[in-house]
Write a structure and sequence with these properties.
Chain A: Its main location: cytoplasm. Chain A: It catalyses: N(2)-formyl-N(1)-(5-phospho-beta-D-ribosyl)glycinamide + L-glutamine + ATP + H2O = 2-formamido-N(1)-(5-O-phospho-beta-D-ribosyl)acetamidine + L-glutamate + ADP + phosphate + H(+); L-glutamine + H2O = L-glutamate + NH4(+). The complex is a heterodimer of chains A (221) and B (719). With 221 residues, chain A is α/β, with parallel strands linked by helices. Helices cover 22% and strands 26% of the residues of chain A. Chain A has 5 helices and 11 strands, in the order βαββαβαββββαβββα. In chain A, strand 10 (177-181) and strand 11 form a beta hairpin. Chain A is globular. Chain B is of the alpha+beta class and 719 residues long. Chain B is built from 24 helices and 28 strands. Classes of the chains: A alpha/beta (221), B alpha+beta (719).
């Protein structure tokens, strides 16, 4: 199974995501933001964390219009899998692949800490945990306060598209939402960093199951 | 544009002393023009020339089998085996941070990261040591918020994990905060890049952000004392752009791979002037610059402004002309400005041309290696008066005062604003002892710590200097790392005052002795003098940053205390209360002598811990607040109560050096005692871990209550 990780000039979790994909057994390629196509046969595209274009404007707003974005949209439209973490989640909302927006944290401060999460919606990303499982993952962001209008939030909840929720909301996110799925459940955007809790050296392996189950599911598909 | 005439006022405004100006006249055999005067002021100020400190810095131990490159380059380089090296340095950005806390701190981080990647090392860890005034001082809260946000804003976006640091508060920093930034990077030992230019007629290449008028005269400002005109100095603080820095770093890494880079120097203090002079001076060459080719952000910039601008995120390189096309492709990929702005020339000459007009023509070596040096008069610090009586205090009450104080409460409010895990190699995040980072792709780990106890240095500079190194040594040992080497960031007051110079000389003596005895040579550093406001000096603050190595086949000591574990103290306790945290925080007293550091015992006890690492579950050094604070911190980090048998003030709060608190099970404790008696290391059982209370003798409080106080205090003081 093949994964691509998009690299924007200010990405800084690209290597981390690449390592997590590779450890789970995926064949990983890096794709430069100035490219206009993805390599053939890509099953999943990773949109990594970082500060894609400095994020002096809205986080992810410039990245959503990078040359590679057309290919990313096409991949998603074809039913391809996409995982956006942190800045990647912000890029996916700016690109219109996921609804809502990530606003400045309610406390107005950057937060880096490990937080409690409850896994909910069914997907290749979350099924390894089982709905209702509580896990802990690191967050590290200044703009992770998920916002959408009430109707969108109702839809997300009604369709079981809230992938993970904070057990103790750190940033003011609407309805404690930490990560959401697209309608076809193949695009996941999440603020917590599973790739930072993916091997014993991290002191926390709660993120490893996401990558492991993803690989298993893609291989079986 | 008409340039100002060189008057006595103009010379003084450039921070050039009359005797220094006489030396300039002697060197040139004529009067300098305006641009030349600016260049001299940038190169000869304290910040760039180390003119007051150089003769003392030469006495520090800087060599060892592990040292690949000691002081003098952008950062020190230390061997970590397997053909790899760790490259690190610590540098101050004190004055800019006081004037404009966010940008001052941010560009401090940017500057130290550039020092590291200039040498070919990808930054893998950052720390910062911060000293502020008291919490009630009107500026402190704003400085704390601004500095912490600035550090986070830059480091988080750049993408380097911040894994440690210090935050302290003392009235001596009310008018002059300290921001000391540390960075470490990883490089191949045979892939280190240096600043010495070589080869005549080679292109001098400018890379990175455009040059603006920001920071003109910054290095001169950093070498001046403050007074009430400080707000007027705000325009001399530069503005940071971590996004450009990140691209600059990636571009440099790629460029270095192509073999195009002959020499490289970042533009930090005194920007284009200092970087060009360093490259030429180290290579024994001259440099010609054509300033109209410099990428400029603002219109009509003069030669003076361009030569003195401290715009950030810029690099100067000498490139192999044969690889120019490959180099350009890398810059284009990362959308960075790239321009050939001059060339190396054979004669000892710094020639600055602007639109065909000569704006400066100076003997280059006289600007740097032949800059003035002073052996300033100094007086040794008087021996401290003996410690008066210390009244008995309820130990739990005293602990509550300590852990609720700005100085000893938990630092989560600070550390959680820094990304400590980006790069996904962080093994231990900040909060309890040294930070630990895995060397990417290996099982080796590096530990990082930053330490100094300024009130000790003030009371007894020699012992305080020793103690700063010894505490760094212990913090590395406590996570199972072998201490490798040290960087020093020496923050002091006005060196023209003999008593301040005496602090400097004494502290350096102590640092040198400890680095030698503990085999932690100084490989890089920075001196920040004139940290005074209206004549009031800061506490002497020689911050020690240190790096240790945990081998691929070694287990780090990262465990926690568990219910039933024995609490042991390794090292001898005599109950030294002079200059202790207890005195300062509980009794508002700073008297007595600093604790003396027995360097042989330090070495022996540290080596013992490392040799017996398999018997140690959790370990922390005993420093400020003695056994009481260490036992609480270990219990708090482990989420388990602790019972310390004694309730005696000196035993609990004494700050004798060379000590560690160890938690392990009963069998391990017995084995440790046996090993200790063979090694001649004092080890004593002081209590045990378990339950949900913190007890000192009969005094007790619930751990949960103390933990809430400890974790909530910082936000309570400053949030």
């Amino acid at each position: 199974m093949r994964a691509a990780v998009i690299v924007y000039p200010g990405s800084n979790c690209d290597r981390d995501m690449e390592v997590a994909f590779a450890r789970a057994g995926l064949d990983v390629t890096r794709v430069w933001h100035k490219d206009t196509t993805l390599p053939a046969g890509i099953d999943i595209v990773g949109v990594p964390g970082g500060f894609s274009f400095g994020d002096y404007l809205r986080c992810g707003a410039i990245a959503a219009n990078a040359p590679i974005s057309g290919a990313l949209r096409d991949h998603a439209a074809r039913g391809g899998y996409v995982l956006g973490v942190c800045n990647g989640f912000q890029v996916l909302t700016e690109a219109g692949l996921l609804p809502g927006a990530l606003l400045r944290n309610a406390g107005l401060k950057y937060i880096c800490r490990t937080v409690g999460l409850r896994v909910e919606g069914a997907s290749v990303y979350t099924d390894g945990y089982g709905a209702g499982t509580e896990i802990a993952l690191p967050i590290a962001h200044h703009d992770g306060n998920y916002f959408a209008d009430p109707a969108t939030l109702d839809t997300l909840e009604g369709e079981g598209r809230v992938a993970v929720r904070y057990t103790d909301n750190p940033n003011g996110s609407a309805r404690d939402i930490a990560g959401i799925l697209s309608e076809n459940r193949r695009v996941l955007g999440m603020m917590p960093h599973p790739e930072r809790a993916a091997e014993p050296a991290h002191g926390n392996t709660d993120g490893a199951r996401l990558f492991a189950h993803l690989t298993t599911a893609l291989t079986a598909a | 544009m008409q340039e100002p005439a060189i008057t006595e006022e103009l010379i003084a405004a450039h921070g050039i002393k009359p005797d220094e100006y006489a030396e300039i006249l002697r060197i040139l055999n004529r009067a300098p023009n305006f641009t030349e005067l600016g260049i001299f002021s940038a190169m000869w100020n304290e910040h760039c020339s180390y003119k007051s400190s150089k003769i003392h810095l030469k006495k520090l131990p800087t060599t060892g089998p592990q040292v690949i490159c000691g002081p003098g380059e952008n950062a020190g380089v230390v061997d970590i085996g397997d053909g790899q090296a760790v490259v690190f340095k610590m540098e101050s950005h004190n004055h800019p941070s006081y004037i404009e806390p966010y940008q001052g701190a941010a560009t401090g981080v940017g500057g130290i990261l550039r020092d590291v990647f200039t040498m070919g090392a990808r930054p893998i860890a950052a720390m910062n040591a911060l000293s502020f005034g008291t919490k009630d001082h009107p500026k402190t809260r704003q400085l704390v918020h601004g500095v912490v946000e600035g550090i986070g804003g830059y480091g988080n976006a750049f993408g380097v994990p911040t894994v440690g640091g210090e935050v302290r508060f003392h009235p001596a920093y009310n008018g002059n905060c300290l921001v000391n930034a540390f960075a470490a990077g990883l490089a191949d030992a045979d892939g280190i890049f240096y600043s010495a230019a070589s080869g005549v007629g080679r292109p001098v290449v400018y890379l990175g952000a455009k040059t603006g008028r920001d920071g003109v005269g910054g290095a001169t400002m950093a070498s001046a004392e403050f007074d009430e005109t400080i707000e007027e100095k705000r325009p001399t603080v530069q503005v940071g752009d971590p996004f450009t820095e990140k691209r600059l770093m990636e571009a440099c890494m790629e460029l270095m791979q192509t073999g195009a880079v002959i020499s490289i120097q970042d533009m930090g203090a005194a920007g284009l002037t200092c970087s060009a002079v360093e490259m030429g001076d180290k290579g024994g060459l001259g440099i010609r610059l054509d300033l109209e080719k410099v990428p400029q952000r603002e219109r009509n910039m003069t030669a003076y402004e361009m030569m003195l601008s401290e715009s950030q995120e810029r690099m100067l390189m000498v490139l192999d002309p044969a690889k120019e096309a490959e180099a350009k492709a890398v810059f284009d990929k990362w959308d960075l400005d790239f321009a050939i702005v001059g060339e190396t020339i054979p004669e000892d000459r710094f020639l600055i041309m602007h639109n065909g007009v000569c704006k400066a023509d100076l003997p280059l070596s006289k600007l740097s290696s032949s800059a003035p040096e002073y052996d300033r008069p100094w007086v040794a610090t008087a021996e401290p008066a003996p410690l008066g009586d210390v009244p008995h205090v309820d130990p739990v009450d005293a602990l509550k005062i300590l852990i609720g104080s700005p100085n000893y409460c938990a630092r989560n409010w600070v550390f959680e604003q820094y990304d400590s895990q980006v790069m996904a190699d962080t093994v231990r995040v900040p909060g309890f002892g040294a930070g630990v980072i895995r060397v990417h792709g290996t099982d080796k780990k590096l530990a990082f710590t930053s330490d100094v106890t300024p009130r000790y240095v003030k009371a007894n500079p020699v012992q305080g200097g020793r103690q700063a190194v010894a505490e760094a040594f212990r913090n590395l040992v406590a996570v199972g790392a072998k201490p490798l080497a040290t960087t020093d960031n020496l923050n002091f007051g006005n060196p023209e005052k003999p008593e301040i110079m005496g602090q400097f000389v004494g502290a350096l003596q102590g640092i040198g002795e400890a680095c030698l005895a503990l085999d932690m040579p100084i490989v890089s550093g920075n001196v920040s003098l004139y940290n005074e406001t209206d004549g009031q000096a800061i506490l002497p603050t020689p911050t020690i940053g240190a790096v240790g190595l945990i081998g691929a086949d070694q287990e780090p000591i990262l465990g926690f205390a568990r219910d039933g574990h024995v609490a042991l103290v390794v090292g001898a306790s005599a109950g030294h209360l002079g200059q202790s945290a207890l005195l300062a925080e509980v009794f508002n007293r700073e008297d007595g002598d600093a604790p003396h550091v027995d360097l042989e015992a330090e070495r022996r006890n540290g080596d013992f811990i490392l040799a017996q690492r398999d018997l140690v579950r959790s370990c922390t050094d005993l420093s400020d607040g003695g056994l009481a604070l260490a036992a609480f911190e270990m219990a708090e980090a482990s989420g388990v109560g602790v019972q310390i048998d004694t309730d005696e003030t000196a035993a609990l709060f004494g700050e004798d050096q060379g000590r560690y608190l160890v938690a392990c099970n009963f069998d391990q404790a017995e084995a440790l005692m046996v090993a200790a008696s063979h090694a001649g290391v004092p080890v004593s059982t002081v209590g045990r871990f378990g339950g949900d209370m913190v007890r000192f003798g009969k005094a007790a409080a619930p751990l949960a209550e103390l933990s809430a106080l400890y974790r909530g205090a910082f936000a309570g003081h400053f949030g």
